Amino acid sequence: MSPPGPAVRTSPHGFSARRRWKWWPRPVRAQRPRPRRWTALLARSRADPVVSGLERFVRSPARLGLSVLLRAEGGRGLNLQMPFGTVMLRGVPATSVSVLNDCWRSWFQRGPAPSSFEESVLVDVAPVGPDEFREAGEIVWDPFLCVEPSQDRVQAAGYRWMAEVRRTVPVRARLWLDRTARGSVLGDLWENFLRLVSAYAVLAEGGLLVHGAAAGFPGEGILFPGPSGAGKSTISGILEREGVQILSDDCTAIVRSDNGYGVAGLPFGGERRPRRPPTRPFPLRTICLLEKAHETATRPARQSETLARLVASSPFVNGDPAVHSALLEHATAIVGAVRTVHLRFSRSGGVARALQAR
User: Fold this and answer.
1) Contact 13, 21 (CB under 8 A)
2) What residues contact 138, with CB distance under 8 A and at least 6 apart?
3) Are 316 and 250 in contact (CB under 8 A)?
4) Do 54 and 61 form a contact (C-beta atoms < 8 A)?
5) What is the pLDDT of residues 290-331, one digit of tens each?
6) 208-356 sits in which CATH class?
7) Is-contact 25 13, C-beta < 8 A?
8) Residues 6+ apart with CB under 8 A from 345
9) pLDDT-flagged residues of the chain (< 50)
10) Is the pTM of this model over 0.85?
């Protein structure tokens, strides 16, 4: 009979201390029951799984796209006066009219409508039932907006809407929206749709819609393109405190003019969006690539750097292979017609003085 071994110290739960590194039993917590509403949404999403593309937001994009576009009874026609031309909205339901009035009242064209449809961007609006779109619990919110370009058109979808944009000159578009949408949902719907239409409308006229800030100096406009976090809002705030006119801090249009190119703000996003349409675009003279630093200074930038930044800051169209050649052609012409500089800036100020002294 072998002698007894050393005593093994056990844990309070009855397991050997030698096995403590593997796992310890955890107390079982009572799980809170799911509300019936979320249980129903989860069961519905499992029965009807969400796939990639437009079906993230729309149950059957093909069926909705082939349906007859029926305008709402009593739908109104509105004309938005943009820097690149007039956007004619036909068949806007009453709920959308109130939202558009709250957001862009001063951008509505006063007086007679354009003489011909051939000179304006034309948008047909049709409200549809909420069953055409997915519920919030079924949507994969990455990305929050889906754009699918094809050979002759671009389809896009978001929460409670779907659109189709045809690459014609000028642009023709159709919008299907949920007739029950209200409030901020309806406001976001219209802003996302109008951003998409504006990007293709500006490109069709030989310009670019740019994710960037813009400032107006006497006799010239300066563009600051860049992604989120590049410092567009910061530089706009600094220049505003120094008495410079801010055209936009988020969404800017580069449009063709008699003497080259002009720059004007668009009423989308940002804290310093223009409240009314500009009388005329500022002549575009300089494109600045922003660099955050401890002091403020400028130095020349290579045209290739500026071209890459400008293309990367052109939303929607830079992801559409059908318009890549036009995008590169317009961006190259714009970069070749202006000065390109690197702007190192700090929060201490002196940015306006550095830009005027370059």
Assistant:
1) no
2) 41, 44, 45, 48, 50
3) no
4) yes
5) 998 889 999 999 999 999 999 999 999 999 999 999 999 999
6) alpha beta
7) yes
8) 231, 234, 235, 238, 290, 291, 292, 293, 296, 351, 354
9) 1, 5-32, 34, 37-50, 115
10) no
Per-residue model confidence as pLDDT tens digits over 60-93: 998 887 766 655 556 788 999 999 999 999 999 9
- Can you read off the two tokens belonging to residue 123? 């948008």
User: For residue 245, which amino acid is it?
Assistant: Q
Pairing between β-strand 282-292 and β-strand 161-166 as defined by DSSP bridges: unpaired
Amino acid at the residue 14: G
Distance CA 334, CA 149 (A): 25
The residue behind tokens 């049709």 is: 126
Residue with tokens 């600051």: 224
| CA dist., res. 36 & res. 34, Å (int) | 6
Name the token pair of 49.
Answer: 């799984």
Residues of the chain with CATH 3.90.228.20: 208-356
Handedness of CA 322, 260, 192, 197 (dihedral sign): negative
